[in-house]
Amino acid sequence: MTQDWWREAVIYQVYVRSFADSNGDGVGDLPGIRSRLPYLADLGVDAVWITPFYASPMADGGYDVADYRAVDPSFGELEDARLLVEDAHAHGIRVIVDLVPNHTSDRHEWFRRAVAAGPGSPERARYHFREGRGDQPPNDWESVFGGPAWTRLPDGQWYLHLFAPEQPDLNWGRPEVREEFLDVLRFWLDLGVDGFRIDVAHGMVKADGLPDVGTPGHLKLLGTDALPFFDQDGVHEIYRDWRKVLDSYPGRRIGVAEAWTPSPERTARYLRADELHQAFNFHYLTAGWDAAELKRVIDDSLAAMAPVGAPTTWVLSNHDVQRHVTRYGGVARARAAALLMLALPGSAYVYQGEELGLPEVLDLPEDVLQDPVWERSGHTDRGRDGCRVPIPWTPEGPSFGFGDGGSWLPQPAGWASLSVRAQQGDPDSVLELYRRALRARREHPDLGAGSEVEWLDAPEDVLSFRRNGFTCVVNLGPAVVRLPRDGEVLLSSSGVATEDADVLVPPDTTVWLSRP
């Protein structure tokens, strides 16, 4: 890895509650992650991104933070965080922690004081408190989790929460809010973390006057249209201040934006030289299994990042979206999609369990659902729990090796055959495919940051591109495709055949080829 390690890193996302449980309470924790670091090192990842483990009442799985400088007891202690960072570094793995600056928990001391202080107080100025329009909220904004984005207090004022009512939005126009988070950054950087994934990075600044959107169904506009509460230009002033803090520490500490924007060009604004280092590529994540659509998104993504000199990121799944095995329609496509993603220039994100080929769990009993989306939608949207089911480590045990006391969400019985132990050493398994791919990606000079993409002529349902001595071919169509063999087969997501000077690529298959 170069000094700019983040430009080509493969970053593994750990959803803390569902990765590994060290104490048998059914919930994953920091010591559990620490115990599985050898697995991550053997898999071949460069860094791990850990979802929030801060003190929290868990109204939204830890994304409602009550204390940004403390570890929630369900996950361990502050010393566990320090030891995890230390051990990860010993295994050659960098650590990125989640930071939630758009909102706090309603149990945060600041919000408790704001409620107690009453209307017009300096404490309420740290959040967005407003008078209503009669008995109606101050504007027509809707919560991402369903329902209005405002809750009324007994004293008559309303407060803004773009997510759950237990997650009041901070007012980033206040200098004490900005100073508080600069101090939080320094706290965790001093502990040794290598960077931050910034939750709702596009949301901290709201349009002046908090104007109405004017149309219902805001969530459908997310990532496609301009909204008065997301992707406002003022957020960039915040990140310029944060970049100064990051650059003041050795070892290239980074900021990663979770920024839903209307276009790749808007995303690139977060990655200018004096702002953040990476941003999630949601335009790629939401693309369908279609050659023309994927090619367009790849081209647009690379073109948008070029002017700001930032790497493009690629991601297929995370803790907020349906797992791509299910979304794409099967393991064969998921395997092919993984090799396509890992062949592209830039940095890639792997969500825990995707290297096992885990599908979305669609049939969780209603009485175990914990995502606030379930309640906020009036039980019409099952939410995100289906992609958060704890991962299986062994074919046996009360939770397939996740822990000794079961798991907070039930695992399907069929996951025994998808466990880490069941797949280890099986050359046809998804796990071994990921291991081989990550090893090849690290070793091949034209992968990773490597060289640029050169598209090659190919049939309508096929993507084919060259990166100097490396070629990637993806057959997204229903029939076997015969193409000129541009080198020797390095890796394929399913069986391929070579015949004289040609390579035969089955449907839903990606093949890597390499020339001397």
Automatic annotation (TrEMBL):
<dbReference type="Pfam" id="PF00128">
    <property type="entry name" value="Alpha-amylase"/>
</dbReference>
<dbReference type="InterPro" id="IPR017853">
    <property type="entry name" value="GH"/>
</dbReference>
<comment type="similarity">
    <text>Belongs to the glycosyl hydrolase 13 family.</text>
</comment>
<keyword id="KW-0378">Hydrolase</keyword>
<protein>
    <submittedName>
        <fullName>Glycoside hydrolase family 13 protein</fullName>
    </submittedName>
</protein>
<dbReference type="InterPro" id="IPR006047">
    <property type="entry name" value="GH13_cat_dom"/>
</dbReference>
<dbReference type="InterPro" id="IPR045857">
    <property type="entry name" value="O16G_dom_2"/>
</dbReference>
<feature type="domain" description="Glycosyl hydrolase family 13 catalytic">
    <location>
        <begin position="13"/>
        <end position="388"/>
    </location>
</feature>
<dbReference type="GO" id="GO:0016787">
    <property type="term" value="F:hydrolase activity"/>
</dbReference>
